[in-house]
Every structure is written in C-alpha cells, then in structure tokens.
Design a protein that fits this description.
alpha+beta, Thrombin, subunit H, 5-stranded antiparallel β-sheet, 26% helix, globular
Length: 203
C-alpha cells in the first residue's frame, strides 16, 4: 500500500514539474514561433492547447503562442479569430479577424478581452466560450460570435482589490493576483492535514 502510494506521489510530482516548465518556458521562448505565426492569414494554428465544441457547429481552439481563440466549422473551415491586434495594420485593441480581413498573431496582456498565453477552453449550452488565461490568472468569457463578455479572478478589476472579482469592458480588467488566488485555494495547514490523514490510512 505504501509502495503504490509512493508511485502515485512520484507521478503527480513529475506532472507538476512538467506543467510548471511549460508555463515558464513557453512564453519566454515565444519569439521562436514568431516567423511561423507571422505567415498566418487566418486559420493557421501555432501550438493550440485547447479545443471545444459549442453544439451549434462551432469548434474553438485556444492558440497559446498566437494569443488568440480561433473558430472553425466542424468541417474544418476557418470562420474567425479573436484577440488583441489580430488584424493586420494599426493596433486597434480587442477585435475579431476573418478570412476577409486577414489575421496575425495577437498581443499578450491583461486588458479587457486580452489574452496571456491561453490554455484550456470550454463552451456551454448558452452560447458562451470560456478560456483559461494563465499569464493573467483569470478565466475569460466570450460569446460564440467573438465578443468579450467578462473575466473573473482575484483582484482583476483596476482599483478593486476585493478578492474574487468579475471585470468587463465597463470596469476595465487587469492581471489577477496570483498570490491571493493561491492563498484562497489552499488555506494554511489544510494540505498538511490531508497528507497526514492519507499517510495514517496507508500505514
């Protein structure tokens, strides 16, 4: 029993280390992907980390290196992509690009609708798409037409600082507070108590 538990803990430790390396190293090496991403006129995927289906014929991919979310049909036809400055030309902030406008990699950051190396993605039955935003420590919500709705996380409203908050275009958004998120997710002593309980049961 103890031996099996040890293997599980070792595997969990290895997975955690791998996840940390991906989070820390990939954003830092984003420039290595820029030549490939720059050729993208729309629909080209560079390191997609998540995919979701909305049940209405839409398939969504989160593009970790291109700072975008792209929508396709179930037949694989590119429809649009959302992000910051994703249309060729001058910087416009949050926007949606299409095959008609052309597309380019977005700009990472913490403003409303802006993505910071997006990861997981999911769609609900109500027509909304949710994107995990690791660099901003928040979850962003968009409509299936590409409009930004809101984001939630710890201290994501400028001037707020009140714990778990929801930000929008109206309030403005900023990068969440990772330290406060960790403290709230793991109260002091709780992990030690759980580990002790598991250790006693295995013995």
């Amino acid at each position: 029993m103890k031996e099996g538990h040890g293997r599980l803990r070792g595997g969990s430790r290895a997975s955690t280390v791998a996840a940390v390396l991906v989070t820390l190293l990939l954003p830092a090496s984003a420039t290595a992907f820029e030549p490939l991403a720059a050729m993208d006129g729309g629909g080209g995927l560079v390191l997609p980390l998540g995919v979701a289906i909305d049940g209405a014929g839409g398939v969504y991919a989160s593009e970790h290196m291109s700072q975008r979310v792209s929508r396709f049909t179930t037949a694989g036809v590119f429809a649009w992509a959302l992000g910051f400055d994703v249309r060729p030309g001058r910087r416009r902030g949050f926007e949606v690009c299409t095959p008609a406008t052309g597309c380019k990699p977005g700009s990472p950051g913490g403003r409303a609708g802006q993505l910071g190396f997006p990861g997981g993605i999911a769609a609900d039955r109500g027509g909304d798409v949710y994107v995990s935003d690791p660099a901003n420590d928040r979850i962003s919500r968009f409509t299936t037409s590409g409009a930004f709705v809101s984001a939630f996380g710890f201290d994501v409203v400028p001037g707020g600082g009140k714990g778990l908050e929801v930000c929008s275009h109206v309030t403005g958004c900023k990068t969440g507070d990772r330290r406060r998120s960790r403290r709230a997710a793991q109260p002091p002593g709780l992990y030690r108590q759980r580990w002790r309980g598991q250790h006693l049961r295995d013995r």
